[in-house]
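Appendix B. Raw example, untouched.
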Amino acid sequence: MKSTTTETLMRLEDLLKTLGEVRCRSLFGGYSLTIDKAAFGMLVEGELFLRANEQSAGYYTQRNLSKLKFTRRGRAVYLNYYQVDSELWNNPDLLVQLAADSISCANEDIAQRQQEMRVKDLPNLSLQYEIWLWEVGISDVDTLKAYGAKECWLRLRTIKKNCGVKALYALEGAIVGLHEAALPAETRRELYEWFMQQPSSVSEG
């Protein structure tokens, strides 16, 4: 990370400390900025860009602030992020408010995506799993996560007698967002020990 980018990040972290911990990761040749998984801004070559929502977009366009641009396959692509200029940096209260609006907008998008996500869209699961889970009263992602892998597995076994340890791993992975093979060894071991305590346990399926 270049020194100018590091300086801007430190400045922003201090400014937004009341909103939460700012995290960054490489993206599109710059750095995506998040607070509690909500992507609210970008750092590109030391310049800060804030994500616009319906309300703040009017302010950005009125002030003729630049949109974030990157090149993809030789074509310019503009993102809904606007550059923070010196005037805005010199108005920290407004900058914090705009950042808070960006975070709220990002959180709304996250909630919307979660509502739209179906069980079959989770790692390890398929349409067939979705149908089976629906048959045992687990019709959405929130219910799946609320019950947890073990309870979901027990319910599945009421209609799928050969439901084995692989299905348990698949359910756990789906809940935590990992492929079953990527589950930590400690998690797999704990699940396997629990599985072996169940009546008529089998090791496949």
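End of appendix B.
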